[in-house]
Specification:
The structure holds 2 protein chains of 2 kinds. Chain A is α/β, with parallel strands linked by helices. Chain A is 28% helix and 24% strand.
Amino acid sequence: MEILVCVKRVLDTSENEIELDREGTGIELDEAVYSINEPDNYAVEEALQIVSRLGGKVTVVTVGGEDDEEVLRREMAMGVHQGALLSDAAFSGSDAKGIATILKSFVEKGAYDLILTGVQADDGGAQVGGMLAAMLDYPFASLVNSIEVLFGGKLKISREIEGGNREINEIELPCVLSIQTGINEPRYVGMRGIRAVASVPIPTYGASELQIGSGTVGSLAAKVKRLDYVVPTLAKGAEMLDGSREENVERVTELIAAKGGLR
Amino acid sequence: MVEAIQSPAHATYWLIQGRLLFLIIYLLGAACFSYIVARRLQPLFRGERDFRLDQPFRRLGRVLQFWLGQWKHPRYRMAGTIHLLIFAGFLILATRAFSVLALGVSDGFVIPGLSGKTGHIYGIVADYASTVVFFCMVVAAIRRLAFKPERYAVPARYGKGHSADAIFLLALIAILMAADSLFEASQAAGLWQQGQTTEFLPVLSLPWMLNKALLSTSLPKLQSLHLGAYLIHDLTFFFLLCYRPFGIQFHVETSLFSVFFAKLERGNLKPVRWGIPDEHLDQVKSFGVKTFEDFTWKHMLDFYSCADCGRCSDNCPSNAAGRPLSPRFLTIKARDYAFQHYPMFGSAKNGQALVGNVYSEDEIWSCTTCGACEEECPLLVEYIDKIVDLRRGLVDEGNVPQSVQKPLKALESRGNPYGKMTKKRADWASAGKFGPACRVKVLNGESASTLYFVDSITSYDDRIQAIGQATAKILHHVGEDFGILGAAEKDSGHEVRRFGEETLFRALRDHNTQAIHDSGARHIVTSDPHAYNALKHDYKDVPPVEHISQVIAREVKSGRIKFHPAKNDKVYTYHDPCYLGRHNQIYDDPRNVLDAIPGLKRVEMRRSRDRSFCCGGGGLMLFYEPKEEERIGVKRVRMAAEAGANVIVTACPFCMVNLEDAIKVAGLEGKMTAIDLAELTDQQIVRESQRHKEVAWRF
């Protein structure tokens, strides 16, 4: 099975102390640490597990600049066979539809049975997967937390529903799925693995190679524009319980029950 | 003169002349044994390289101490004494066994040098030796069957018990001793009945007792007893010889080699591959142990040498807490694997992954590398290197527990497992009231002769920063010209390495080594035993390193540190951190410091010094979520409570985290506290200004 996984490099929210930049519309990027968007990593792991069972190849693709190559290498160190960087000055400032347009052009250059994305990017809006599917006229399922390959070009998937429920669907290939975290346990990638793929060439595709016309991508085509960026202020929300152990237990039970946590 | 009792060599057994029969038995026995041992050695030749021939004289010294001297055995008084007696008996009886066997083919054989008076004396000693060994077998069997020491038990998940096999082996040895004695006693009785001079049988020895019982037995009967005993002796001897390589008794043959080739240094780890220089490491295709053949030949030898005594697991904190790890079965399972996959007949089946088939992932990650198992093992079997090698294999395959992946990645990007900003690494040194009171130089432009290597937890953890501040104040007090690396410091990588992430460790080590050289410091002090151990054993070419407890002890001795009396009626106990105690043998310095505080009451826990019980593990172990029945730390604070202590003093930031948590979990809050040696020192120290006051007041 040929699988394409669309990934994104994001600010690692667990490792950064987010501070606004001087204009207040962006983030201070001094000493920032980036990493692969977490759900994307689960998608790559799932793709690798599928091809290890059924054979085939996994390709990872990202839209961005030279710096974004780092996440492609990290995924290649996991065992991904091919990486592709979609990069062009004309792409910068694209909104979600622009990104989906760029990815669609890349998908059309290959022959993929299955396209995976993360459920959403840490800094995104869970839009690209669905848009990409629509543009390709492929079936789409979101929040996928298990995949079983059936005979006859079909998948049995389960989707996460609020409250821990699951919905089981059958979906036809080729299709696009957005992958929820927890679908698997992604393998660890250490420095050694990354070093091993350090010199593997990663092809770059620009607007002309992808035959993307100007006016369909980039900031000029973007119909959604960011105006502001707001970081919540830290509030004093903590209530200290200073009774005896039994009193505290009782009080905590009450509080949790009041918020609907206990039935 | 007619022989009163015919000798086995001259006798006829079922129409075969004795001499011929025994010659056939010996040749067959020796051939079988050689074949079996050759098959057993087969995997060792397929194992990884391991350089174990350096410092031969030191190795010989260790053979004298641990093999011949049985150094570790008395740590378990009863079992140790029994073993010592059996071992001594075997050594004495080796010569006798040889000469008795020789009698089967050469009548009246006497080992040169053992004739006449020497021979008589040796005979007496040997008679007593076989008697002692015989009764040791009886006692050992009674212990196994009636008293059932807990450490011999085999939990259900590891298969059926080992007692039947143990009893069988004890019985074989007992039969050997009895047959030998009967052989001697029947001859003596026969000769006595004929009024001939007999070999002197020492009073109360087994031959003496049997002789007394046989004095009135008829001569023909004595004759058949004599010959029968001899045949049984020889058959048992060779059966035992060939049976030993199939079980725990193989250690009789292998222990000498295991001890000679045993690891000489403490606290360090084996390289990823022996004989591969650092710069070529990237070209090594596979890291660590994935299949049995990835173990080094010495580690395979360890599997054969294990005597199944259970002392390792009896001391293992992970085993005690109900984690899925028992060092004993780590070895037993590997040995069973070797026996199964390298059979006596047919070709070897190799290449199967160990983790997933023989070991579980949780088993491999459960080890805190505290070293209690290695400290206890009478045969010096190595565990930490094997665990780390298995982890290297898991890391290489990407099999790292999810909870540990984040901190590892943070270590890669930020140099600390918490993902905190690099530039905030030195914030503790300027925080709150501490900053202005005690200036800590950052050796970036400024220079100092001593470097305080702080490491990640002390730099970033709110609670542990207090240990860093106390350390700085002590260094200040004793007039040390010191500074820290600040943002230039990264995690020492001690736990990173022990979690099997060698490549990341090397990156951290290389970075720190450069930063240490750039600082120009000539001496390193640290308050973290893990950093201490890393700098001392894992790093190369860095200035000498001391733990703060060593500095305090030295300055107490020199008089530069004086203590106020302890003004409370608390009872203190000292908890030995594994990487200060067992791995680096620093037991006395911290205790001397405590004892220098006037009026401080100190007790020892049941498990202290080299038998100290781990707190639960440091570094990345804090991020690992093991399956366990009870936290290791909780067990430890209970031991402190048992000892009657209400203050646990330790000298390691990770011990502090684990013990303070455990105090809460054990419900001992308010009854028990934990304090670091540096914090206690800082609290009790008599400062300059105070000292002047005291002096002024005195005059």
